[in-house]
Amino acid sequence: MTEGKRAVRRLESISTDVGTADQAPRARQNRMNHFELAYDRIESLIVTCALKPGQVLALQDLQDLTGLGRTPVHQAVARFAADTLILIRPRHGLQVAPIDLARERVLLALRADLERFVIRLAAERSGASHRNQMLHLQRTLRERRDVMDIDEFNLFDRRLDRLILAVAGEPFLEHALRPLHTMSRRIGWIHYAQIKGALSLQTTIDCHLAVLEAVANRHIDRAIAASDELVAFVDSMFDVMEREIDPSLLDCSIEPIKTR
Question: Residue 139 domain-assigned?
Answer without folding.
Answer: yes
